[in-house]
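name: query_chain
kind: protein
chains: 1
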Amino acid sequence: MERVANERIPQERELLALEHIERNPSISQRQLARELGVALGVANACVRTLVRKGLVKVRGDSNRSITYHLTHEGVIRKAALAVQWTNNTISDYAAARGRVRRQLEAIASRGIVRIVVLGADEAAELVALIAPHAGLEAVAAVDLGGRRIGDVLAGVPVLMPGECATFSLDAALVASNDALIEVFRSAVPDVPVFDLGGRKIAGGTS
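structure:
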């Protein structure tokens, strides 16, 4: 698995480089390095590789006049890489969704039904989305404050910890924000807090 992940990295970089060059043919290698989040030498090597492969053509005869242009092969390669990146992303999401569902089903098998999700980011959204399919009822997502309070996440309201004190709950699940554990435990001490592995980490009766 590690080998496959490592093979994807250069392809993602190649795709990004082709996209930036297509959008801005006058981009400098220093600018490209910033966009790719790599050292200047790495960006230089990337451009040389794209030229060597026949994916990019260089025009101009000085640093100030040099522009980069995708060849026909470059356009085709960029499209193919974009499709591959999309498929990889979907595959990774499906794997994560399956893993979270199995974790939630294991939690539901312990008689837990009504939960709140501690967190309001993408990980919390994934848990809230999958919960009904695993036999759980997500009542709310919990955040410490900010713009998400009062918003809706995967069909459930985003609330402050204290707003959950009147709910009938079986458990709180930590999806992403560990900082919420102590705050939630103080606000709702009788509700046990579990991680996604099913380990009780706070609250509830002993």
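note: Residues 165 and 188 are 5 Å apart (CA to CA).
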